[in-house]
Every structure is written in C-alpha cells, then in structure tokens.
Amino acid sequence: MNAPTPVAALAPTVKLLIGGKFVESKTKEWRDVVNPATQEVLARVPFATQDEIEAAIASGKEAFKTWKKTAIGTRARIFLKYQQLIRENMAELAALLTAEQGKTLPDAEGDVFRGLEVVEHAASIGNLQLGELANNVAGGVDTYTLLQPLGVCAGITPFNFPAMIPLWMFPMAIATGNTFVLKPSEQDPMVTMRLVELALEAGIPPGVLNVVHGGEMAVNALCDHPDIKAVSFVGSTKVGTHVYNRATLAGKRAQCMMGAKNHAIILPDANKDQTLNALAGAAFGAAGQRCMALSVVVLVGEAQKWIPELVEKTKTLKVNAGTEAGTDVGPLISCAALSRVEGLIERGIAEGAKLELDGRKPTVAGFEKGNFVGPTIFSGVKPGMAIYDQEVFGPVLAIVAADDLDQAIEFINANPNGNGTAIFTQSGAAARKFQEDIDVGQVGINLPIPVPVPLFSFTGSRASKLGDLGPYGKQVVMFYTQTKTVTARWFDDSTTSHGVNTTISLK
User: Fold this and answer.
1) Is the distance from CB of 476 to CB of 174 less than 8 angstroms?
2) pLDDT for 475-496, tens place per residue?
3) How far, in Å, CA of 169 to CA of 476, rounded?
4) Distance (Å, rounded) from C-alpha 57 to C-alpha 331?
5) 252/249 Cα distance (integer angstroms)
6) Structural domain of residue 268, as residue ranges?
7) Which residues form the Aldehyde dehydrogenase domain (predicted)?
C-alpha cells in the first residue's frame, strides 16, 4: 500500500462507481496506471476521499433493503446474462488486461475465463443457497434453516489477477443477496472497471455494486466501517494479516488469501518430458506473478540429474511483451517489482545457491523500457536463503534435493505456507501417501497448479490463509450468508390444549 503519487498527465481518469453511476473523484491524490512493457501511462486512478467511500457504502446499504428481497431467479438470470456478456467481450477484456498488467494475451484470456467460471456458478445460486428441513422433529414441530444475506460486503483485490479475483468476489456476494463495495488494485484497475460496466449492463441494479479506488486509507475504511459486514481479500501476507486483524476486531467476517511458497515433488519414475513442460509452465507463466505459481521443485533421488534438461527446456521460453505472438514470459508489473526480483536473485547468489540460469537484463527488442526478467533457476537452495524464505513473485525457480519421498514431504511440511503443492509420479501408492501426509490445502497429482473449479472451494491453508471459509465454491455461500434456524408449530381448531408447559421439552 504505497503512498499515491500526484501526477499532472492528461491521461484518461478511472471513475468511481457509486449508486449505479460512474463518477469523477474529487480527490487530489492520483496514481498512474502504467503499461509494464513500455512505461506508457494508460490512465490515472484516484485515491477516493473518505466522503466518497462513505457514499459508496451508504449506497450499498440503501440498495440492500430491496436487493435482499429480490427473487432468487431474478438474481440468477442477471448472472446468466453477465456470463454471456463476458464471453462476447473476451478479446477486449484480455487486451485491456495485457496492456495494464503485462500478461500474454492467451494468459489474459485465461485470467478472465477462470473468473467467468465463478460467474457461471453464481447463475446456479438457486441450487446453492438451499436450507435444510426436518419435518415433525417433535409433536407437530418442524425445524428448518434459511441462508440469508449479511448486508454490505467488501472486496480488496490484487494486481496479479485483475479479472479473475474480482469475479471470485462480487458475483457470489451479490448472487446470495448482498450488496458490494469493491476496491480493485490501484496498479491495474481498467479491466476490472470494464467488467463492472458489463455487470451493470447485465442488470445489476444501482447501488448493489459499488467501486472505490485507493490505498491504505481505503482499505482501513472498509475494514472499520460498521455497515460493512464481511471483507474478502487476496494479496500479500503483510496486508492480508492487517486486513484480517482489523476487520475481525471491528466484528466483521473476513477471509484473506495471502502469500505462498508452492512446492512440487518430482519422483524419478515421473514422465520426464511431461513433467519438465509442466514445471517450466507453472514456474514462469505470468512471469511468476501468481499466488499459485510453482516456485520450489524438490527433486528426489535420480530425478536430481534432470536439472540440465530443465534448464534447456526453460531456455526455449520467449521473453517479450504480452501483446507479441509467441510470448511465454511477459514483464513484471512495475519498476519496483523488477528491482525487488533482481535484488533477490543477487541475494541468492550471495547466499550460496547455484545460479543455473540467469534471467536478468534480457534483451527485448522494441520494449527496452519494459520490466523484464527472464526465467531464472537456482539449485542447491536451502531454508534461510532469501530466495526460499520469501515469496519472490517473479520468474525464479528454486531447486531442492531430497533422498526420498518421506524427506521431501517433511521438507514441504516445514514451510509455513500452505497454498498449493504437487507431486509428479506414475506410482499410485506414492501419490496417495503424498495426498494423505502433506499439510497443504490444495494438492496436485501430475498437475502443477491445482486450483479447483468453482464446484469446489479454494482451500489454501496455514500461513497462506486467514479465515475458515474459502473465496468460492460451497464455502463462499456460507461466508456470504447467515444461517437462521426456524422452529415452528402450527395449531388448528382441533388441536387439544395441554395447558401451560414450563419445561424445555417440545413435546
């Protein structure tokens, strides 16, 4: 949450959404939205004032009075329309995302598509928001539950998935009958705002979805405001811990998906070519800027001899602007990110890791000002080294050696993070042992990035997550609703009265 930088450029301004209208902020604090491949200023994003944030929350509170009573079928049809609009505008959305975030166009489409899957799930809300009924639990008594919305909810999203993660949040919150205030990343809000425009076009009523922009002040305002009932966050561990503590202290529900250090175990019996392809793609795709990126490979036994082949496979990846055909690795999001990743590579060398492939300062013709780091591989990595202990969030892969599967599992379980992990093997027994013994929330078997589809819940664990319920799937319906239990007995004229009953029994 860096301090905003005043700018005097005449780039277009990103608007706030309050009460169904896109409005120009009255703030004096602005930040440039910069193309990370060219340093071109694409837009200016405002750091909303306290009054503007208050207005957005008030709009959501007012809209909740009617939206919570809107028929569930009406809500579902809005998201049926919304998923159609997203599909029709996929190319435009991907182009916007690539311009401001740097991903390759195919990866940008993937970003939008994984969010679209949650929108499709939201359209099934009629089957998801079902209560329970027990008939005649006592003499003429029925008990049933209602899953009712909470009120105004808030979402704080990161720069690395500016389409997918907002689509994880507001569709499910709104489909379950809540209203929403979204604070996108100030680094790349343009594709998020286009998705918001399409959501209004799909029929989301005024005030049901609101958007504010900003940094630490906006985050704190959403965590503190008494009319915000729940806060969802995806981002760094430092900020996520702050959000969780501040929001829960204020009596709110909170779910915070945070940092990671994702490992994959490679057993010698794994299919070598398929495994090497999977490792290179998962480690270096999106320039390593994924919370589920594969950042550590644990080579077991004879698999330690695969390092030269992994290096050669990685050398085939093309570093270029995301708009260029055939690009595999685009730029990092900012100059600050570039400096940080290069600094961590230098620390890796200084702390004794072996630099197998150096991706610093690649030559990218036509994009010399871009924030580029090529794929980088270290071997001999150990805990205590910065490249292992920190989440690099760049195209840097750490290789660790292990004698056997037990040692590899023990090594992974000693890491505090628990977002995702994987094993590559042709042994069903080894895979089963791994899935049972590993202490990580999301497990891949011959899949390097085990992010579940929305029928299931995102289940990161340990230091990668604060809060009991995940950001989509069945768990998020519980997060965005309050369970109300009703116990009822109806009498008719033929019912015989048994007089006053002063016991707790329902008989």
Assistant:
1) no
2) 999 999 999 999 999 888 776 6
3) 9
4) 36
5) 7
6) 263-415+420-445
7) 22-486
Round to whole Å and give the CA distance between 188 and 102: 10
Note whether 161 and 33 are same-domain residues.
Answer: yes
DSSP state of 319: B
Residues designated as active site: 291
Q: What angle do CA 480, 483, 484 make, to 5 degrees?
A: 140
Phi then psi for residue 9, to 5 deg, are -70, 160
Domain of residue 338, CATH code: 3.40.309.10
pTM greater than 0.90: yes
Pair of tokens at residue 1: 């949450």
User: Whose structure tokens read 């007089």?
Assistant: 499
Place of tokens 């290179």: 280
Q: What total of structural domains would you count in the chain?
A: 2
Length of the chain: 507
For residue 386, tell me if it sits in a domain: yes
DSSP character at residue 468: S
Q: How far apart are CA 13 and CA 28, in angstroms?
A: 13
pLDDT reported for residue 506: 63
Low-confidence ranges of the chain (pLDDT < 50): 1-2, 4-9
Tokens 């929403």 correspond to 180
DSSP 295: E
Q: For the chain, what is the radius of gyration of the CA atoms?
A: 25
